[in-house]
Amino acid sequence: MKKALVSLALCLAALSGSSFATPGEVPEGGTLRQMPMQGLTAGSKLLGDYRGKPLIINVWASYCPPCLAEMGSLERLSKRYGKQFNVIGISIDDYPERAMAFLTQAKTSFPHFIDHKLALENMLGANRIPLTVLVDADGKVVQKVFGAKEWDSPETVEAIGKAFGLRM
Known about the structure:
This is Thiol-disulfide isomerase or thioredoxin. Its main location: other. By secondary structure, this protein is α/β, with parallel strands linked by helices. The chain has helices spanning about 1-15, 65-80, 95-105, 120-125, 155-165, and strands spanning about 35-40, 45, 55-60, 85-90, 110-115, 130-135, 140-145. It has a 7-stranded mixed sheet with strand order 2-1-5-4-3-6-7. It starts with a helix and ends with a helix.
């Protein structure tokens, strides 16, 4: 029931275009806290295990068509620039089997995790999805991008390079 209410709030926020902070949200410029992540397509990890290299976190759900629409471009971005930064996905689904069915359709190779308890969703500020968070090598949130994007377009790749201070 709690997850259904949160999902309804996500949908309403997306429709209204409004933005509200989630409980414990780390804003742009803030540093992400250490957080356990339950593995979905990879073993469980701590978020801090990704420090030392820039990170792109994509927050998605199986019931979100725009989330599926952008997965192909995230996969291509990950394959092409994976030596310069990591890409991970965070599902906010209640049911791992639904998330796995989504990933079967999406055909991604980067690691995905599932957030049953809303901890990552709240910390990242996922009041609308898809949400993609650019995080520097020290764990600082550089930028939050709401809505589906073409992540491997030349303009977006250039913007990512500038955000991370990388030559792409």
